[in-house]
Amino acid sequence: MELAAMGHEASGGKARVFDEFPYAARSWRRRSRRVIVKAKHTSRGANPRYVVTSLKGAPQWLYDRVYCARGDMENRIKEQQLDLFADRTSCHAWWPNQYRLPLSTLAYVLLEAIRRVALDGGELANAHVGTIRLKLLKFGAVVLRNTRRVRLLLSGSRPHQILFHTAAAKLRPG
After folding, report:
1. Rounded to whole angstroms, how far apart are CA atoms 83 and 128?
2. Which of 24, 64, 73, 163 has its CA 20 to 30 A from that of 111?
3. Of 109, 103, 106, 73, which is closest to residue 88 (Cα–Cα)?
């Protein structure tokens, strides 16, 4: 932590230092574990993180590429549950609940593809699925239906209309 604090004072920005040490709690049956330490210091102060692991590799690589990737994956699962309603399995019958989860997964895959292809380099390139739904896909329309077709009449002006047209143009084939 002292090295990170000195690095912060010298640079004025955030400073991170990685290290490792063996640790064995009394209840661990005489076997020590590898503990990776990330000592971070910012203008808000010290922010240490500890990860107990048995994986091999450099401490910084394990922390950034393995541990943080695992946390990012948990965030994607939470995003699907909260923003795409994957947790909505309230039906008493089994089959409707089983049907809802693949639909939610399909919606996530589609929105992830839209983010990767149509929103790359734009303001929503790193946005959460809920933000993409709100800003890009949620808008009012009038539905006109007759025996041969269904027509959607979209509003002539709405928030983020330029973003919608730009994304739609990137998704258009050819």
Report:
1. 9
2. 64
3. 103
